[in-house]
Amino acid sequence: MPVTVKGEVGDLGATLMHEHVFGLSPEILWNWPDIPEGWDLEVRAREAAAKLDAVKAAGIDTIVDLTVVGLGRYVPAVQRVAELTEVNIVVATGLYTYDALPPYFGNRGPGSLFGGADRLAEFFVRDLTEGIGRTGVRAAMLKCASDHLGMTRGCERVFRAVAEAHVATGAPITTHSAQPGGLEQQRVLAKAGVDLTRVVIGHAGDSTDLAYLEELIANGSFLGMDRFGIETISSFDDRCAVVAALCERGHAGRLVLSHDSYCFNDRFDPDVVRRRHPNYHLLHIPTDVLPELRRRGVTEEQIHQMLVDNPRRILGWTSTSPRTGTSPRRTTS
Asked: Could you tell me which of 205, 225, 202, 64 has the C-alpha nearest to residue 146?
């Protein structure tokens, strides 16, 4: 059964597969607590819960929070949000970097200044099988990233650790990608033993190159049509047109929808974000995108596939710790 912040659930319902509850900058908050954005856990948790309640009323039942190390993951705050809303929240493990690793990992492991064992995969597996920190909340997805710099040495090390954790647990993987970097991501993951049918190439919807997107699908992966509302990268019309075209070509069973939005993010000026990206919020898909997709000929069955069936297939896995010697198993729900 899928694992959420509150535990296992029988049915995720309509699911946004790439969102964030909080994006935090811990060292800034520790040292300059009076910054204008401010951080009060209870205040921000209640604000986030109100936003999730609104999306629940619009027909969304679950969000996948892909905030991992490198993006300010703080699961105790997400737990508080989960207590205040009926929306299911699924959390992830992994590490977010476009280039070098954080010094804690960069100064350890093969090829580093001081050498030693690479503990990335160990930490990821622990998050998946035992829980994150002392919260007891288990992650349900793995996340890795590469961007305009390509598959740097640091990125490849994260990808390989994510692959190792996937092989050990069966957990699905999602990526952050810059186009056409998804193909390189697939090559690295496949070489490391990953089942590409268990991978979501995130931000694939930034591309309008249907040949590229169909190549990713042919290799087995799901595509994240997951930046609706960020129109400086690809317009609303282009994003909807790509989804509609892929559905028309029979690929709805390989697409998932989302915004990559935050309930609260101290990394950007909220006023600037609202002005430049007025549709960058959790309600954009249910209120704007779905009606436009229907207008373009996307069927209710295809929308159900993208919002309900595909997330269920991706997240419907269970795992026991590899230390027990038992094998992970995938559910068929």
From this structure: 202
Residue 291 one-letter amino acid: P
Which one-letter amino acid corresponds to residue 231?
A: E
User: For the segment 64-101, what is each residue's pLDDT rounded down to a tens digit?
Assistant: 999 999 999 999 999 999 999 999 999 999 999 999 99
DSSP state, residue 101: P
108-131: pLDDT as tens digits: 888 888 888 889 999 999 999 999
pLDDT greater than 60 at residue 327: no
256 and 306 Cβ atoms separated by less than 8 Å: yes
Q: Which residues contact 103 (CB under 8 A, 6 or more apart)?
A: none
Q: Cβ contacts of residue 244 below 8 Å, gap of 6+?
A: 293, 296, 297, 298
Question: CB within 8 A of 100, min separation 6: which ones?
Answer: 106, 152, 154
* Cα–Cα dist 127/135, whole Å: 10
pLDDT at residue 1, as a whole number: 80
Taking residue 72's Cβ as centre, other Cβ atoms within 10 Å add up to 21
pLDDT bucket at 329, cuts 50 / 70 / 90: very low
Which has the closest alpha carbon to 106: 115, 98, 228?
Answer: 115
Instruction: At 9, give phi and psi (nearest 5°).
Output: -130, 155
Give the residue among 260, 199, 195, 192 at the shortest CA–CA distance from 230. Answer: 260
